[in-house]
Amino acid sequence: xxxxxxxxxxxxxxxxxxxxxxxxxxxxxxxxxxxxxxxxxxxxxxxxxxxxxxxxxxxxxxxxxxxxxxxxxxxxxxxxxxxxxxxxxxxxxxxxxxxxxxxxxxxxxxxxxxxxxxxxxxxxxxxxxxxxxxxxxxxxxxxxxxxxxxxxxxxxxxxxxxx
Length: 163
Description:
With 163 residues, this protein is mainly α. The protein has helices at 4-32, 43-63, 68-92, 115-136, 142-162.
């Protein structure tokens, strides 16, 4: 028969071993459940650009009748992109409904004077948006990569419509 002190030390060692084995799991869970990251969300810049591009397209649609249909389509698409990005930003870092959105509305923009300059401004904005989104895709988690990749593809499609 074992002495009581011997039984306690065996039980003590097992408990210590269990704690050591559980440490990586606890660390992983605490990291996964941690609060907001220290860096700003990578999607904020994309959402801000989408809102800005939408304001530019709206200004072009109002100023240049020849470009109105395509500019309105671009404005609608870029507003949709901004909304989808805002939803994803809020999903990852929920905010109080009383707080303003993390992506503020873009100020109104002035359309370039000529239709060709306005068209070129839209092309530049869409090229920039497509490239910016495509550049982020490899560094994002799967769901976000799909969202951002879709936005990049959408901008590429809008460029084809514009040309």
